[in-house]
């Protein structure tokens, strides 16, 4: 009774404050929310920021849903009212530019409170897991490992929500072989912008299914995802080797990812890489290998050149431990890295997948995690990747980066063109990720202003040279820019919006469609 009163009170306050023509009785008539709608300032503030730390927007309220029905009820109450309000799903809030925020609306906090989440349900026979949209990947991994199974495609960092990464793509070093995470989703349960709860897959409601995969939250809120699994390896041989020659580095990366075409061929399970422009503290945040005392690295750096690190990994089972040495050696023999620069470690599969979290803990201990992150992620066509080396790594960046620069190629054939995400028009394209942290430490080249300005310079460089990059985790502020981003896909994207969220209620923090409120 008391709960009911508080809930009615909270919704009434929402209406009075925003002036929204929502009738709480309409929401309540179909049954009370099972979860909790909060206007508590501390809840509101907690969803008004994100990992990027570059913007903030306070919603009127935060919904902590107890079920997908709660999500549907809230969206429907906006859709059916005379004046709509925005609804944004928020996973773990690890966006950079306020993508999960909404001003004057309601944020649905999908992650971080157990009440909403039915526990992951594994089908061993059909090799999939059904998970709540707000589930974090680390928890998906833990649940599936109980059955000796694991998802096939990952992100480098596991404290991200399923709904958040598959609204983008979800990529890591396995993507060359298994495709991005969105290529490994069998089925979704989605609340559309009309408040309808719909199951979609390749076989039913196909248009919605492809719209939502990589759809930047524009077409529906993912409440459940069915994710493909494989037998989980037990251990990983994790290797890094260095190059001073960029074309040798990219040729080797491209050779390694081309092996996906030969199912029986010996290959690495993970292929990534990064550019070493400087050896600052933050540049080492993901490193378990490098040490400033390492003689090879120091002498190589004495030349003042840029280095490239190929990062590869081979999964194995304990029972196969004897063969792993030979397999890795056979693969390494085919590569052209600088002799003597192999760094190798063996570790449990979970520790490998969860490697970035360890770095996070170290940065947190130094108060270097909760700082602004002006990240820039680009998909670059293979034919122009050398231009980025010349013009950006060896040019615009000088010898300071304020964070790691990831670089690795992927096969376009592993991406389903019917999904919403856009990639360059070549069979192989690279991710180049400038993962910088801005610091206020007196060094002008590490300030937010300097780094944001450098991002603009990089984008301008690509534009001037007609390098057809696509932003990954894109951020634009005008519809013109979004139209350019989607190119030929814009018409499809906007048609899907009309169909699944005609009142522009969802995820307006992406600033793609103008909200009607
Ligand atoms: P949020 O920031 O909460 O939301 C992102 C967008 O998705 C918003 O528009 C939101 O409205 C929408 N959304 C959230 N949940 C749902 C849902 N259930 N249904 C529909 N829409 C929803 N990405 C990679 O691909 N590979 C990486 O290796 C990688 N590493 C990262 C490492 C770090 C440290 C960080 C901070 C980010 C990394 N990312 C990586 C980027 C990350 O995948 C995206 O930022 C992702 O959106 C974060 O998930 P989240 O749960 O925090 O999403």
UniProtKB/TrEMBL annotation:
Pfam short name (any one): Cytokin-bind
E.C. no: 1.5.99.12
InterPro entries: Cytok_DH_C_sf, Cytokinin_DH_FAD/cytokin-bd, FAD-bd_PCMH, FAD-bd_PCMH-like_sf, FAD-bd_PCMH_sub1, FAD-bd_PCMH_sub2, FAD-linked_Oxase-like_C, FAD-linked_Oxidoreductases_BP
Cofactors, names only: FAD
SUPFAM superfamilies: FAD-binding/transporter-associated domain-like (SSF56176), FAD-linked oxidases, C-terminal domain (SSF55103)
Domain called FAD-binding PCMH-type: residue spans: 55-232
Entry keywords, A to Z: FAD, Flavoprotein, Oxidoreductase, Signal
EC class name: oxidoreductase
Record's catalysed reaction(s): N(6)-dimethylallyladenine + A + H2O = 3-methyl-2-butenal + adenine + AH2
GO MF: cytokinin dehydrogenase activity; FAD binding
Example GO BP: cytokinin metabolic process
Keyword Oxidoreductase attached: yes
Signal peptide start-end: 1-21
UniProt record similarity statement: Belongs to the oxygen-dependent FAD-linked oxidoreductase family.
Protein name (record): cytokinin dehydrogenase
Organism the protein comes from: Dorcoceras hygrometricum
């Amino acid at each position: 009774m008391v709960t009911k009163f508080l809930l009615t009170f909270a919704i009434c306050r929402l209406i009075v404050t925003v002036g929204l023509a929502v009738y709480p009785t309409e929401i309540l008539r179909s049954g009370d929310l099972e979860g909790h709608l909060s206007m508590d300032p501390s809840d509101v503030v907690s969803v008004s920021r994100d990992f990027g730390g570059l913007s903030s927007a306070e919603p009127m309220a935060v919904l902590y849903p107890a079920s997908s029905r709660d999500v549907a009820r809230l969206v429907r109450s906006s859709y059916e009212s005379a004046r709509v309000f925005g609804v944004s799903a928020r996973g773990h809030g690890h966006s950079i530019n306020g993508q999960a925020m909404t001003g004057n609306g309601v944020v649905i906090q999908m992650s971080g409170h157990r009440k909403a989440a039915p526990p992951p349900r594994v089908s061993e026979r059909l090799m999939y897991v059904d998970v709540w949209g707000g589930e974090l990947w680390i928890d998906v991994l833990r649940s599936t490992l109980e059955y000796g199974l694991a998802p096939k495609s990952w992100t480098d960092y596991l404290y991200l929500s399923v709904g958040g990464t598959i609204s983008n793509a979800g990529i890591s070093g396995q993507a060359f072989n298994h495709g991005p995470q969105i290529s490994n989703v069998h089925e979704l349960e989605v609340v559309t912008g009309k408040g309808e709860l719909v199951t979609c897959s390749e076989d039913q409601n196909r248009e919605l299914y492809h719209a939502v995969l990589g759809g930047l939250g524009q077409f529906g809120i993912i409440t459940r995802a069915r994710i493909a699994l494989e037998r989980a390896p037990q251990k990983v041989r994790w290797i890094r080797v260095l190059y001073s020659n960029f074309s040798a580095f990219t040729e080797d990366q491209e050779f390694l990812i081309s092996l996906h075409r030969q199912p029986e061929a010996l290959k690495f399970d993970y292929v990534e890489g990064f550019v070493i422009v400087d050896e600052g503290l933050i540049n080492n945040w993901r490193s378990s290998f490098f040490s400033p005392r390492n003689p090879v690295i120091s002498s190589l750096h004495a030349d003042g050149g840029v280095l490239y690190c190929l990062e590869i990994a081979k999964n194995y089972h304990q029972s196969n431990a004897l063969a792993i040495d030979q397999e890795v050696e056979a693969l390494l023999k085919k590569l052209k890295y600088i002799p003597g620069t192999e760094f190798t470690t063996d570790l449990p599969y979970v520790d490998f997948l969860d490697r970035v979290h360890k770095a996070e803990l170290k940065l947190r201990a130094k108060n270097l995690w909760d700082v602004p992150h002006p990240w820039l992620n680009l998909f670059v066509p293979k034919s122009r990747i050398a231009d980025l080396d010349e013009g950006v790594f060896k040019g615009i960046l000088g010898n300071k980066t304020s964070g790691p620069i990831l670089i690795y190629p992927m096969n376009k054939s592993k991406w389903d063109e019917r999904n919403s995400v856009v990639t360059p028009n070549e069979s192989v394209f690279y991710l180049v990720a400038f993962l910088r942290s801005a610091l206020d430490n007196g060094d002008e080249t590490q300030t937010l202003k300097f780094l944001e300005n450098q991002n603009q310079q990089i984008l301008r460089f690509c534009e001037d040279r007609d390098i057809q990059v696509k932003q990954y985790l894109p951020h634009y502020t005008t519809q013109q820019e979004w139209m350019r981003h989607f190119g030929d896909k814009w018409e499809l994207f906007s048609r899907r919006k009309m169909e699944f969220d005609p009142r522009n209620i969802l995820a307006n923090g992406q600033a793609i469609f103008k909200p009607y409120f």
